[in-house]
Amino acid sequence: MKKSLFNVLIIFFLAACAPSQEVIQEAVAQTLTAGPTPVVEQPTLVPTQPTEPTVSTAATTISISPAPSCSQVNGVELLLEPWHLEGDNGDAQAYQEIEPLVLQGKDTLSITYNLHGLEIHEGERKDESAIILDQPNWYVISLANYGQNGLDGEQTAIVPLSDFISLPDEPSGTPGGEALNLDEPVDMLHTRFWNNSKFAVDITSICAFKS
After folding, report:
1. Which CATH architecture does the domain made up of 86-209 adopt?
2. For residue 194, what are the CA distances in angstroms to 45, 59, 102, 152?
3. What is the reported pTM?
4. Which of 4, 52, 142, 172 sits at a 20 to 30 Å CA gap from 130?
């Protein structure tokens, strides 16, 4: 009799602790209607590669196209041999006789020269880097107004003969500023450079031609 009563109490206790049928059904219904647990994907971290700095560089190389040879332009070479001039706080000059009427029918000179890095100037009398035609006074151009000043290397300046202008000449009373007369004889071709420091200049060709 005592054992049966004990069994009844255990059954009653288990029934009280067990969830009711309604609770079990509701839990099952929530489980079925609930969606799958979302999975949040974390972005894959890719190590950042260092970016090389962009360096802006200015072009410093100057390209100089080779000038046509005297024969290519049907010209006349006025120099019998190249001129080499040297000076040191003074001037240097060179001379070349030419045919008196060689410039008739021509309108241009091509002058090939090397300053060896010398910075040249025109000068007050336009004779510190001058190419000169005597008629009989000086008619000059300054190479400082042509080509690349201070270049260490050979270059060629193309100079219209109309650029040659006379210098003032006191003995003859010539005021200067006149253009070269190509119909008149030219007595001499020469050059004069002056600088207050040591310098060297090479002139390898002076070609007269019709452009």
Report:
1. Sandwich (2.60)
2. 72, 32, 28, 18
3. 0.68
4. 172
